[in-house]
Amino acid sequence: NSNTSSNKNTLDSAMLKVRIEHHLSHTLGDIIINNVIDKQCTETKKAYWHATSLALNEVITEKLNQSQLRQSQSACKSVNYLSLEYLMGRLLSNNLHNLDLYTITEKVLKSLGFELADLCEQGADLALGNGGLGRLAACFLDSLATLDYNAMGYGIHYQHGLFKQHFADGHQVETPDMWREFGSPWEICRPESTQLIPLYGHIEEVPQADGSTETKWTAGKTLKGVPYDIPIVGYNSSTVNALRLWQCRADSAFDWDKFNNGDYLMALEQQVHAEIVSKVLYPNDEHAAGQELRFIQQYFFCACSVRDIIKRYQAQYGALTPAQSEHFSSKVAIQLNDTHPTIAILELMRLLLDEFQFQWQDAWQLARKVFAYTNHTLLPEALEKWPVKLFERVLPRHLTILYRINEAFLNEEVNAMWPNNDNMRRALSIIDEGGEGNERKVRMAHLCVIASHKVNGVAQVHSDLVKSDLFPEFNQLWPKKLTNVTNGITPRRWLKACNPLLSALLDSEINADWAKELTQLSLLSNKADNADFQQQFMQIKHQNKVALTKEIKALTGITVSPDAIFDVQIKRLHEYKRQHLNLLHIIALYRRLLADPAMEMYPQVFIFGAKAAPGYKLAKDIIFAINKVADKINNDTRIHDKLKVVFLPNYRVSLAEKIIPAADVSEQISTAGKEASGTGNMKLALNGAVTIGTLDGANIEIAEEVGNDNIFICGLTVDEVKALDQNGYNPTDYYHNNEEIKACLDWLDSDYFTPGHAGALSPIKESLLAGGDPYKVLADFQSYSDAQNKLNVAYQDKKRWARMAILNTALMGKFNSDRSIEDYIANIWQLTPVSAN
Ligand code: 26V
After folding, report:
1. What's the number of domains the chain is made of?
2. ipTM of the predicted structure?
3. Is the C-beta atom of 445 inside 6 A of ligand 1?
4. Label partner for 725 (CA 20 to 30 A): which of 56, 501, 740, 753?
5. Same domain for 161 and 115
6. What residue ranges in 474-561 does DSSP mark as E strands?
7. Distance from the CA of 131 to the center of ligand 1, in angstroms?
8. 746 in a domain, yes or no?
9. Residue 651 lies in a domain
10. How confident is the model at residue 828 (pLDDT cuts 50, 70, 90)?
11. Within a domain: residue 516?
């Protein structure tokens, strides 16, 4: 399973040791005086982590340079992935694994008195994203480099990533993420690629010699974008690509006049204002932010990235003229990760028209060949709409271009299909006319669909719903434009690196590089009933559970038994993901156990990890409720540890890497039709957890792969949810007709879980009754509870459970993100790989 010879790295342990020690003493300052250092102290470990990263970086940057040279010599097409979010996690262990240098680095550090795994823990997570969308972008970059494609990720160099979370008396408290407080060894600043970005100001119509007029934009302000490149190391490949993150600074740092006049603070004002643009990641997941600052963030990012794409094209192929139009689109693809980078379309059009003297038709044709758009959600509140007034003030020239795109689209394409049909024009227009006191808004998704040659959803059922429910008219107009690319995850981070014990077992069983060829794991199916293999597989699961048990103790003080079922729900906190359905069932179990202490039940630990958007009141109430119910249950000796509830604080990529290898059960219980795909579902199943879930997103495809005997499906289907909505869903019926539901919800009103504070948990009950239970928690409760009972019984049959767990690992090959990338290549990007051999 080792690297093929051409990808082998020429770094032996002697040289590695020299380099680490060099960085310790020369670039980091001499912290080792006469070898008297405390190897247990955090500062020392941090220094060694830093030195190891810098030593590795020499290998990486060399490969990065070679890759760039090779890619430009081959004149291959490249994809530019535009995303406001990248949830990278830690980089050291992954880079070592991908370069096949993990083992020798481990040896070298051992000789220096350190555990590599321990040092890896010193690195900060790069948490430049919220959840699924950002983590998907990170997995895709890994796959693109692994498959030797020429790809550039573009993003924002946020000073503060996603907030850190801790609990105070059960409530979520947010603190700023300081991932770069002392610098980051991975990033390379590229001042030579700085961009100046105009905004605000006014436009005027300037008469031309030929009698026509041209629109001239005089900007009111200029921002400066400085790029930082983070190398993306492919696994066992010759490619290292870059993730280019833009930092915003003031055009001129300083107002000398003000400074000389003694107004020192005001002299710095410009700088402070500009730096705000890349200061912080917006922490809303599935809820569009309406602030001007977010809009400017999006524009700043798009303008820097599009200019950089053109600049790199010109550096390689010379001037960009209308005659080069075809050529440009044969060399450049731009993928929009949701609508957040939509302004890139307008910025490319503006540059072509105003700076490169393109005619409208040439510019528009080029844009339509270059752009493609991925939709990641159907939730109405997450669909971005920006006020026309805001556009007009910040980007007046872009707005005129947007109007022209809309005019041409409505008058030509819509009118050809539906002549003189005002309803269709209204439905498809990029502008939502508002009316009745509502302001006019720009529908970003419409602009994306109109300007892209392909639009994809992220799992089959989601893509079907994009066609039938979100954009049915667009689908009629362009039947081939809407398509599906089912998400995937990188098996490097999500199995090889995070689960070394299972990886070693797979290495010994599978005679192929399964971390690349994940479908090879299906060979394990033959051993699913083999007693010896079952024993080895479940022994590893047990060891991983022991490790998580220690982590749980360290983080929360709670003692859990590694022999219990580890039932895991880890994802952003949102009503549609239904952590409160899980909670309601836990309360029901607790109640059953109190009523009948001898009740037959295999001990089960419910483990949660989730951050709530800081402004999402009910999500925070649900976190509080889970914590309070956990307190009560974990300290109630009457139930003899049959039930435990753990909420791990500060859920993030690096914590996921510890939880996932130890999970027995994967909770994927979103309301059918609401979770576009999910990717945690894939990670957990790959590591041998059995899913309890609804027929939603990629769960459906997971069920197809593992078969119905190896998954616990529950709840309403998409069609049943629709039918319920059409016939009028009444949650109070379930409350009155199901004695257990009623008792559990009423319990929340008492002060049982919050002594002295009756009503503290009532908001949850209210949302499910008076609030109308928009996500059908009560409708799905009984079905979920029944599935949980079956699962608990199934676990007690050790052989049956081992078989299920093994088959889940064996049959996840489809969800390799390499497969997703090959789908994008074949259907959307049309790239060819370039490798050294
Ligand atoms: C995010 C944000 C973040 C900042 C403020 C504004 C805003 C508005 C909307 C969104 C939507 C994020 C959508 C998203 O994360 N979707 C998830 O994408 C995953 C990858 O495709 C998928 O697996 C999840 O099911 C889907 O929820």
Report:
1. 3
2. 0.96
3. no
4. 740
5. no
6. 482-484
7. 7
8. yes
9. yes
10. very high
11. no
My answer on whether 55 and 145 are in the same domain is no
Rounded distance from Cα 68 to ligand 1 centre (Å): 31
What's the chain's Rg over C-alpha atoms? 28
362 lines ligand 1 (CB under 6 A): no
Q: For position 333, which CATH number holds?
A: 3.40.50.2000
Give residue 36's pLDDT band: very low, low, confident or very high (50, 70, 90). Answer: low
Residues of the chain with pLDDT > 70, as a percent, come to 98
Strands, E, within 384-503: which ranges? 385-387, 431-432, 441-443, 454-457, 482-484
26-40, 79-93, 715-729: segment of lowest average pLDDT: 26-40
Indicate if 443 and 589 belong to the same structural domain.
no
Shared-domain flag, residues 106 and 178: no
Report the separation in Å between the CA atom of 88 and the middle of ligand 1, taken as the mean of its atom positions.
16
**pLDDT tens digits for 400-424?**
999 999 999 999 999 999 999 999 9
pLDDT value, residue 156: 98
Residues 234 and 372 in one domain: yes
Active-site residue, from 376, 398, 493, 580: 376
Give 99-111 pLDDT, tens digit per residue.
Answer: 999 999 999 999 9
User: Which residue is listed with tokens 């006319």?
Assistant: 433
Residue 577: active-site member:
yes
Which pLDDT score, from 0 to 100, does residue 515 have?
Answer: 98
Confidence of residue 743 (pLDDT cuts 50, 70, 90): very high
At which residue do the structure tokens 């002392």 appear? 182
All residues at 6 or more sequence positions from 265 whose CB lies less than 8 Å from its CB, including other chains: none
Same-domain check for residues 435 and 554:
no
Mutual angle of helices 777-796 and 739-749, in 10-degree steps:
110
**Are 451 and 336 contained in the same domain?**
yes
Cα–Cα distance list, 659 to 214, 514, 536, 665, 673 (Å): 59, 22, 20, 11, 27
462, two tokens: 């989601």
**Which domain does 705 fall in, by range?**
527-815
Is residue 655 included in any domain, yes or no? Answer: yes
Closest by CA position to 303, among listed 171, 198, 421: 198
591 labelled catalytic: no
Q: How many CB atoms lie within 10 A of CB 692?
A: 24
Q: Are residues 68 and 85 in the same domain?
A: no
Reading the block at residue 225, the tokens are 């974008």
557 vs 543: CA distance, rounded Å: 20
**Does residue 364 surpass a pLDDT of 70?**
yes
Please name the residues in contact with 749: beta carbons below 8 A apart, sequence gap of 6 or more.
758, 759, 761, 762, 765
Catalytic residue flag (residue 389): no
User: What string of DSSP letters covers 687-748?
Assistant: TTPEEEE-S-TTHHHHHHHH-GGGSEE-S--HHHHHHHHHH---HHHHHHH-HHHHHHHHHH
Beta strands in 208-304 (DSSP E): 213-218, 221-233, 240-250
91's CB contacts (< 8 A; 6+ apart) are 53, 123, 126, 186, 230
Least Cα distance to 146 among 186, 103, 97 occurs for 97
Cβ-based neighbours of 803, under 8 Å, separated by 6 or more: 528, 529, 534, 710
Buried b (16+ CB within 10 A) or exposed e, 452-475: bbbbbbbbbbbbebbbeebbeebb
Q: With b meaning 16 or more CB within 10 Å and e meaning fewer, what string describes 649-670?
A: bbbbbbbbbbbbbbbbbbbbbb
